[in-house]
Amino acid sequence: MAKKKLTLAQKYHIYTRGLDWEPTYVSKKDIYPYAEYEGIKIKDWNKWEDPFRMTVEAYWKYQAEKDRRFYAILDGFIQNQGHLTLSDARYLNSIKLFIQGVTPLEYMAHRGFAFVARHLPGPGPRTAAFFQSMDELRHTQIEVHAASNFNKYYDGFHSMTHMHDRVWYLSVPKSYFDDAVTAGPFEYITAISFSFEYALTNLLFVPFMSGAAYNGDTPTMTFGFSAQSDESRHMTLGLQVVKFLLEQHEDNVPIIQRWIDKWWWRGYRLTSLVGAMMDYMLPKRVMSWKESFELYIEDQILEGLFRDLERYGIRPPLHMNQSIKEKEFLSHDVYWILFSFTFAAAFHSWIPKEEEMEWLAEKYPRTFNQYYRWRYEKAKEAKTPLPGDRFYYIGLPQLCQVCQIPMGFTNPDDPNNFVQRYVEYEGEIYHFCSDGCKWIFEQEPEKYVQAWLPVHEIYKGNCFAEPPKGPDDVVPQVLKWYNIQTDNFDYFVSEDYKNWKEWHKDMATVVV
Amino acid sequence: MPVKALYNYKFPPRDRAEVFGDDILVYAYWIDNPFFCAASTWRVPKNMKWKDFIGQIFGQLYGLDPDFKKVKGWKWYHFDQEFNPSDEKTLTELGLRHKSIVKFKPIEK
Fold first, then answer.
1. CATH topology assigned to domain A51-152+164-326
2. Nearest CA in chain A to B40
3. What is the band of A1 on the pLDDT scale with cuts at 50, 70, 90?
4. Given Cys at both, which of A56, A117, A187, A497 links A183, Cβ 3.0 to 4.6 Å?
């Protein structure tokens, strides 16, 4: 009788498990020292179902094909001076935020998944994490290549990794990922694969890539297409990880729930930067933050995913209701913060034009005209000695100890004030922007008391290129340490704007 | 709930009071005025006089608001407790400590 042929799933199972062996002269505990201390219990790694079947050979072929397409399009864009046909140079400020804030996280994700691929005792998830580790490194590289062309013509692209480690608003994404990679392998994979890749990726990725398409940025759009197939693998891995852990042991349920509670709020606070970008920085807008939040989070994640997880005893994240209550305030709060501190940022901001204010009022009928429009009117009067005919916040803000964002999140129940929370822990006071961040601190205070808060570091004298010669020299020395050159201040006094006008003076393109 | 770790996980707080020596960090917040996108942070000597402290924060930052000059007087809070600071007292004498927040709003009419 002929041997029965193996199914694809069986073949893959054997192929990946075949990379594993039972150690004989070293104990498993010594090989996988991080496997138990988080309290996660695994009865049988063989119950792991591969969320996708990718072999190394297929991976190279497939990725090489996608790369060829991407680099062909990038070359065409460069040769045709594609940057001149962007909707407007203001658009690039969202890409500056992306390259400074997100791209270094892709690299950190590469490291994080390499760690997981080494330290999980199960060969199935180790293989999956290994592929994702390679994906993340490729994404870093491709994003850098896409942005390097813009670096020839525009400010804000020249020093992404240096800035990521130093600049105040970039400590937000940096501290988020540092929090994840300093956790154990199970928390890391729940945080990044599930909470970020599964629950939040659409909120980050779709607006960026459609924003690129709407605003004429073909390289970023093509990168988006190229990464999409990787992202869908990442999402299926995230879901499989969480289901597997929940099915393995009932003791895992409260641990996973706590991680979901924590990482929902960490990730949600991080994506508030995307909200500001969507609603304010795209000259041609795709959809509002609120619409995007309703579609991806309220409809898909709350009504879909968390209904599905109910049978495991998992409920929606603890502070989800606050996120819903904030949805008509969040993007406005964050852009107002970015706007206020643009004198110390490696991107530009501007007062929205009248038709943009109308769009904002239409999308946010209960909040924009009531609580935000007047600030921009006032900003025209409240001038400072700095370049740009408008207001800057001449001082340093109070930062949240956990998310590190300036504490400017509106209290929806008292919309003229921000949420302010604090706790005293071992004789020291800590301040928070929200109940979510306060709750996270209280879970692991020993971790967050060590936070590197940019404002406090400046006051400790740790952020100067050279000691300031006087009060007026403080900000310049910080900017020098950040390597911010002509990248800051209002868009309408920027080199970007001057050049853009110059390049378009003989062209029919409408310049704002 | 403590951090789960493979070793004794205990480190001194990075911004503890002693790091700042004779200075403290004080936060300031103008109630009901979100024109300032968040409370502000100041590093000031513990024995700075109250009048010098408000001179600094009003002079550098809050005076930028065109409505500032219309204000006749201020009502003060230390955290959420109302208090009446007198000009000549020092921050320590007034009960302020490292990472205190002082809040203020215009006196009505």
1. Ribonucleotide Reductase, subunit A (1.10.620)
2. A397
3. low
4. A187
